[in-house]
Write a structure and sequence with these properties.
Layout lengths: L10 H13 L15 E2 L9 E6 L27 E2 L9 E5 L5 E9 L2 E8 L5 E2 L4
Parallel strand pairs: 3-7
Antiparallel strand pairs: 1-6, 2-4, 4-5, 5-6
The site of zinc ion has 6 residues, from loops.
C-alpha cells in the first residue's frame, strides 16, 4: 500500500480548516474522546471515522526542530497551548478530518523504537499561530 502525497498546508489553509472545524456544531462520535489538548489516540475513536487529508511537514524535514512555542506560559499538554506552525510537534503533524462531521484534527506520532504514542488534538481556530522565524 502506498501513501498518496498529502497536500502541504500553509498558514492560511490551516486557518481555513480550523475555521471550518470551529463552525461545526453537530454532535459527533469524533469529538467526545478528543479534547483541545493533546491526547493519546483514544481506543474508542474508530479508525474508520478519520481520513488523513493534509500535512504540515515541510520539505525541510531534516531541519525538524524540537523547539516548542509557549509564549504565554503554557506547556505541551495545555488545553490552550498554541498550535504554532514551524514549532514542535506541529512541524511533524498531519491533519485528519472526520468523514461524518468534517471537523479536523492534528495528529503525530511521538517517540520511536520501544516507545510510540499516537497523539491527536482538535484543530482549534483560536490557537492557530503562524510560524515565527
Ligand atoms: Zn466527527
Amino acid at each position: 500500500m502506498t501513501t498518496p502525497e498529502l497536500p502541504l498546508l500553509d498558514y492560511s489553509a490551516l486557518l481555513e480548516l480550523a475555521a471550518h472545524t470551529c463552525s461545526i456544531s453537530v454532535a459527533c462520535a469524533c469529538t467526545r474522546p478528543v479534547p483541545r489538548a493533546w491526547t493519546s489516540m483514544p481506543l474508542s475513536l474508530p479508525n474508520t471515522l478519520l481520513d488523513e487529508v493534509a500535512t504540515l511537514r515541510g520539505s525541510s524535514a531534516e531541519e525538524l526542530t524540537f523547539e516548542e512555542f509557549h509564549p504565554a506560559g503554557t506547556n505541551f499538554w495545555s488545553e490552550d497551548a498554541p498550535i504554532a506552525m514551524g514549532f514542535y510537534p506541529y512541524n511533524d503533524c498531519t491533519v485528519w478530518s472526520c468523514r461524518r462531521c468534517g471537523r479536523s484534527f492534528l495528529f503525530y506520532v511521538e517517540g520511536g523504537g520501544y516507545f510510540v504514542d499516537r497523539r491527536i488534538r482538535l484543530l482549534s481556530l483560536d490557537l492557530v499561530r503562524a510560524a515565527e522565524t
